[in-house]
Amino acid sequence: MKKSDDGAETDCGLEVALTVIGGKWKALILYHLHSGSKRFGDLKRLVTGISEKVLIQQLRELAAAEVLTRHDYQEVPPKVDYTMTPFGMTLAETLRPLCEWGIEHRDRIKAVACRASESS
Questions:
Q1: Which residues, at least 6 apart from 47, have a Cβ–Cβ distance to it below 8 Å?
Q2: What is the pTM of this model?
């Protein structure tokens, strides 16, 4: 953590949150788990574009941060599901306004991105 000259912590809470959900995929994983437990295959389909390797890595990191739990049913064929912890639900709730902002400004962002790609 960053410290000021007097030794007080000066890091923004956003920095703390991003240590847990930083990157492209974790917020999307949390979005899909917010509605309830999901199996690995379900998450793979829902989080479009993510590789299996990266999904596994992101799920492990979220579990290590105590944001979700992994339940292995010890069955053949393997059955594993992921559920958000109460701690993880508090984090997912903070993402709701960001999701709403994205919906509200989707067309504008697409237009800006389109203009940027045309000028490249």
A1: 25, 28, 29, 32, 55
A2: 0.81
Sign, Cα dihedral of 42, 47, 51, 53: negative
Q: Which amino acid is at 52?
A: E
Q: What is the C-alpha to C-alpha distance for residues 17 and 113, in angstroms, rounded to an integer? A: 27
* Residues 54 and 99: beta-carbon distance below 8 Å: no
CB atoms within 10 A of CB 30: 23
Tens place of pLDDT per residue across the chain (120 aa): 555 555 556 568 888 888 899 888 999 999 999 999 999 999 999 999 999 999 999 999 999 999 999 999 999 988 999 999 999 999 999 999 999 999 999 999 999 988 888 887
